[in-house]
Amino acid sequence: MTATRLTTPFNARSTASDVVAGVDLSGQRAIVTGASSGIGVETARALATAGAEVTLAVRDVGAGERTARDIGDGAANLSIRVVPLDLSDQRSIAAFVAAWAGPLHILVNNAGVSASPEARTPEGWELQFATNHLGHFALTTGLHRALVAAGRARVVSLSSIAHVSAPMVFEDVNFRARPYDRMLAYGESKTATALFAVEANRRWADDGITVNAANPGAVATNLGRHLTEEDYAELPAFDFKTPEQGAATSVLLAAWPQLDGVGGRYFEDCNQAARHVPETPLQGVADHATDPAAAARLWQVSLDLLADARRA
Q1: Mean pLDDT confidence for 176-189
Q2: Which of 106, 134, 290 lies closest to 209 in space, CA to CA?
Q3: Residue 248 in contact with residue 270, Cβ under 8 Å?
Q4: What angle do CA 29, 134, 115 make, to 5 degrees?
Q5: Which residues contact 298 (CB under 8 A, 6 or more apart)?
Q6: pTM higher than the cut 0.85
């Protein structure tokens, strides 16, 4: 991690609209995955009201269309469209990429699944790793040319504090040898999304693309639909945010002008995170989520998995 932490005027209570106040994104094109519920809606709303043309990339098109109408009702002349995307389905991702034309200035990899019962994609990949990381990996690498064409582009990779207790187990990323643990699987998938930002930024910074990871904080949304009352009782005492507050860090990384050229970092509460220490269990970024060697290894593992799937 970079030694000097970046700080901003914003904090854990700032909202997405606070972050984009006075920001003009006119002429910029953005994609927000999972923008039909939770913080994805508020991320898309903030970018659209700042003037960006926003594509809601969603699995449920009906819900996406309702979101687009809701955002559009808040202001006139907003440019919002809805395109189907299922991040657990490589064919869906390929179709989305093939249909995209022109430059892409902002990509917010927001969609995700959390603490789900054991399930696998047709390729045999564990669902949380496949959706949260591999799906976004395939999408982002597939859109690389569009990001380059923008001249200056930003990618935001959504992580979680759950990563701190879940370093990557590269020998078994899909829980084939280990007993399935849905909380651990979620944590590892979020370590992966943080590592993706490190390696993607290293590879693409010279292309004008910056990539950062964002921890939105604890927000009560549909993401927690698989959690039981017993699960919640075992969780730390989170200070829950509203969806508008949860979206703020993503929007900061996507749009705040003062972060132009900043990449490869992990942010929380609208500021670059400090190094995680055990005495502060609800904040910070673990060393294993910013390790350049692990990031490079994950990139190759991801390429190999996608190549195997294409050959099958």
Answers
A1: 96
A2: 106
A3: yes
A4: 105
A5: 168, 170, 192, 195, 196, 199
A6: yes
- pLDDT tens profile 246-278: 999 999 999 999 999 999 999 999 999 999 988
Distance of CA 258 to the CA centre of its chain: 20
Question: Any catalytic annotation for residue 186?
Answer: yes
The token pair that represents 293 in the structure block: 């060697």
For residue range 208-247, list pLDDT tens digits in order: 999 999 999 988 765 555 456 565 556 666 678 999 999 9
DSSP class per residue in 55-113: EEEES-HHHHHHHHHHHHHTSSS--EEEEE--TT-HHHHHHHHHH--S---EEEE----
Is residue 201 within 8 Å of 1, Cβ to Cβ? no
Q: Look up residue 38 and give its two tokens.
A: 């939770």
CA neighbor of 268 nearest in space, from 33, 8, 17, 43: 8
Beta strands in the chain (DSSP E): 29-33, 53-58, 80-84, 106-109, 153-158, 209-215, 266-268, 271-272
Can you tell me the distance from the alpha carbon of 237 to that of 123, in angstroms, rounded to the nearest whole number? Answer: 37
Q: What is the mean pLDDT of residues 269-289?
A: 90
DSSP 3-state helix, strand, coil percentages of the chain (rounded to 5)? 45, 15, 40
Query: Would you say residue 75 has pLDDT above 80?
Result: no
- The one catalytic residue in 180, 186, 232, 266 is 186
